[in-house]
Amino acid sequence: MLVLVGSVSFSSSQIETPTGVTVKAVFNQIDGLSKGDDVRMGGGVIGKVTKLILGDSYSAVVLLRIDYKIQLPNDTTAAIHTDGFFSRKYIALEPGGDEEYLATGDEITMIQDSVVVQDLLELIIGEAKSFFPPPATKMKAAKLKKNCRRNLK
């Protein structure tokens, strides 16, 4: 009976899935990205962000744990996206066409940094202002009114 319990315990530990491949991506800006955030490909979750480290030249080194079933070509790209306007961030991977694959410790070199929401809002507001000129002053309005009256006579 003791042998049976030991074999059941042993086989259940063998059923655990392998942890996967850990790769890194170095970003200039990761605003809002956190440990535990998703790594996605084609909209599906294929891994997690496992560590955020301050790297050389104050860059952000992000370690990604990718499911062992997924093979990422060496020329895979990584971008930081947001689920919604003010939602959580995630890493979106886009596979390339290379026939060799990333292994544990390799680096994804083609990256796109996180967009800072405040910067994006300032850009949108600045663009909107260029479409709408500032309101006319009272003096300009009076001249405009006078010119209109002359033209109507």
Descriptive report:
The chain is α/β, with parallel strands linked by helices and 153 residues long. 29% of the residues lie in helices and 30% in strands. It has an eight-stranded mixed sheet with strand order 7-1-4-3-2-6-5-8, with no helix packed on it. The protein is elongated, with a radius of gyration of 27 Å.
What is the topological layout?
Elements: H1 2-15, E1 21-27, E2 38-41, E3 44-54, E4 60-66, E5 77-82, E6 89-94, E7 107-108, E8 110-112, H2 117-131, H3 138-152
Parallel strand pairs: 1-7, 2-6, 5-8
Antiparallel strand pairs: 1-4, 2-3, 3-4, 5-6
Low-confidence stretches: 1-17
Q: Classify the beta-strand content into a percent band.
A: 25-35%
Oligomer: single chain
The description of the largest β-sheet is:
8 strands, mixed
Number of helices: 3
End-to-end distance, in Å? 112 Å
Which terms would index this structure?
about 30% helix, 8-stranded mixed beta sheet, about 150 residues, alpha/beta
Task: Summarize the model shown.
This protein has 153 residues and is of the alpha/beta class. The chain has helices at residues 2-15, 117-131, 138-152; strands at residues 21-27, 38-41, 44-54, 60-66, 77-82, 89-94, 107-108, 110-112. It is elongated, with a radius of gyration of 27 Å.
